[in-house]
Amino acid sequence: MIYALFYIIIGFLAMELSGWFIHKYIMHGPLWRIHKTHHEHTKGYFELNDLFSLLFGSIAIVLIFLGLENFDYRFWMGVGISFYGMSYFFLHDILIHRRLKFFGKPKKGFLAGIFKAHQAHHASRFRDGSVSFGLFFVPFKYFKKRSR
Ligand SMILES: [Zn+2]
Ligand SMILES: [Zn+2]
Description:
This protein has helices at about 1-25, 30-40, 50-65, 75-95, 110-120. With about 150 residues, the protein is mainly α. The protein contains 5 helices and no strands. Helix 3 (about 50-65) runs antiparallel to helix 4 (about 75-95). The radius of gyration is 16 Å and the shape is globular. It has a domain at about 1-105. Helix content is about 60%, strand content about 0%. The chain binds zinc ion (2 copies). The site of one zinc ion has 7 residues, from helix 1 and helix 2. One zinc ion binds near residues 23, 27, 28, 35 and 39.
């Protein structure tokens, strides 16, 4: 049980850390042409940028599949990545970007902090000069009451 939990957490953290890195150096780098669609107001419901979610989702599925026989670490890391994907979708796509209009803007607490931090990321429409590339781990200033 502890074993499973450990790898679920590893999978989750690995996503936030590698996600931060990929977002900052690859999506706002060589693959900006794809990620750009998320910084512009595009017309349709889907963005080319959604390909990244598909990619991460497939990694999780492959890991779960590989670890299925013995429920080894690959299985649990795949579960952790899936948890991350679901939380990411819920917070980033539904709560922050309101692709499904379930909720209004969070006013206080942790959710309001990550909301502000991600808005700061979207303040720029350009490849360079953006801030705040993570989703959950963001600078503490965004959690203070009156930050921008
Ligand atoms: Zn970005
Ligand atoms: Zn966004």
